[in-house]
Amino acid sequence: MFIGASLRAIALAAVVAVAVAGCASLRGRTEGPTVPVIVQVQNNLPLPTDLTVYAVTRSGARTLLGSVPPAATRSFTFKPVSFSEPYRLLATRPLRRAIVSEVFTVGSDMTGRIIWTLSPNIIGFEEVDSDSTASPDTARAH
């Protein structure tokens, strides 16, 4: 009787492991090489200001994304170091204090777009369609 219970427990554990692996593969990879994501910045500040935007790691290393003119929206391509690395977006502006986003991570290769709306300083995420991926060609400034 003990052997039957043990076999059932092992079979149940195997089924759960397969189901978890299947769900993880449907949601995208969270380990291994990262893929580029699109960072869309909406410069909707009440006082029109040119911005220079960076992605900043926890250690303070900056990656220049680009510039956004007043009352405009621009998209940039960004390739995170890893899926678990925390980042902030930083917008510098002439003669004014910089604007810093909340901390975020790119959770998997299914993250297609990060949207930063400067007023009221909100970060949003969009997943990629299952049949497409973010690529540098789709992330040109517009």
Structural notes for this entry:
The protein has one helix at 2-27; strands spanning 37-42, 51-57, 62-68, 73-78, 87-92, 99-100, 111-117, 122-127. By secondary structure, it is of the alpha+beta class. The chain has one helix and eight strands, in the order αββββββββ. β7 (111-117) and β8 form a beta hairpin. It is globular, with a radius of gyration of 20 Å. The strands form two sheets. Strands 4-1-7-8 form a four-stranded mixed sheet, with no helix packed on it. Strands 3-2-5-6 form a four-stranded antiparallel sheet, with no helix packed on it. It has two domains: 1-30; 37-139, Immunoglobulin-like.
Class by alpha and beta content: alpha+beta
The CATH class designation of the largest domain is Mainly Beta
The CATH architecture of the largest domain can be named as: Sandwich
Q: How would you write the strand order of the largest sheet?
A: 4-1-7-8
- How would you characterize the largest beta sheet? 4 strands, mixed
User: In which range does the helix fraction lie?
Assistant: 10-25%
Primary descriptors:
142 residues, alpha+beta, Immunoglobulin-like, 2 domains, four-stranded antiparallel beta sheet, 33% strand, globular, disordered C terminus
Helix-strand blueprint:
Blueprint: H1 2-27, E1 37-42, E2 51-57, E3 62-68, E4 73-78, E5 87-92, E6 99-100, E7 111-117, E8 122-127
